[in-house]
Write a structure and sequence with these properties.
binds geranylgeranyl diphosphate; mainly alpha; 16 helices; 321 residues; two-stranded antiparallel ribbon
Length: 321
Amino acid sequence: MVVAEVPKLASAAEYFFKMGVEGKRFRPTVLLLMASALNMPIPQSAADGVFGGLPKELRTRQQCIAEITEMIHVASLLHDDVLDDADTRRGIGSLNSVMGNKLSVLAGDFLLSRACVALASLKNTEVVSLLATVVEHLVTGETMQMTTTSEQRSSMEYYLQKTYYKTASLISNSCKAIALLAGQTAEVSVLAYDYGRNLGLAYQLIDDVLDFTGTSASLGKGSLSDIRHGIVTAPILFAMEEFPQLHEVVDRGFDSPSDVDIALDYLGKSRGIERTRELAAEHANRAVEAIDALPESDDEDVLISRRALVDLTHRVITRTK
Ligand code: GRG
């Protein structure tokens, strides 16, 4: 699906699908587990009018959602690296730094268009609509991040909304798409969505902690890339509640390295990192509750997949990279 006709575009679009630089493939892993976790009989009323093919065909269609989701994800990374003028991604040179901005943007567009073609082939308008909305959310979240007013930069509500758009919308709506393709009820689709939403939020909250702490627990050991780019995340927002003096520093936009040091100092004295981890754990628990609320099943594969989805929530909040 990612192979283009023109050689330059082909090598650009395939860049992050090559062995060793394919990333964690977190989203397709979650989606295929969700497909197995929901592999149970569906009530006849919900089955009416939806895909009624063989289980194998359903699995293939759900795999297609996992592929589309990863393609949308990689497209967004390519565009993001152009916007951020990034040098590296997944431990190698970012595509913009290797092949230039123009080819990166075009490769992102190409991946998005191939994802659209694959989506259309599933012939399910509700699923098309869900994933089109996800792309809108990615663009909205990115725009929210780069156009903040001083008031928005200090707002937890704004931060969480942006985080949903940039990170959680893709995985939550794709989880819902997996349930819809299986012909599951609205209730089950909402539980799949809730799992993805809360997992995605927990994932990003921990990402925001790791940007400060890196692999060690001490501050300043992360890449500090967010704060250096003037992006205010949950740890600083919580620290601001304890130390309102931080408002002034945040307002100045972290243009000077000394402001970054002052913010780190306050952050170290505050419970900012701890409270962000606690919030991530709350979302992880809500994700577990969504799995626990799924209709009962005694199918061993279904139960193993549900346990794996629960296990992933623990991994997300305990990860160190
Ligand atoms: C072209 C769809 C499209 C969008 C354009 C640039 C943009 C609008 C949106 C940016 C969205 C973005 C980069 C969100 C960050 C998401 C995120 C958590 C990335 C890191 O994901 P990981 O850790 O990375 O899963 P790997 O490398 O493992 O895949």
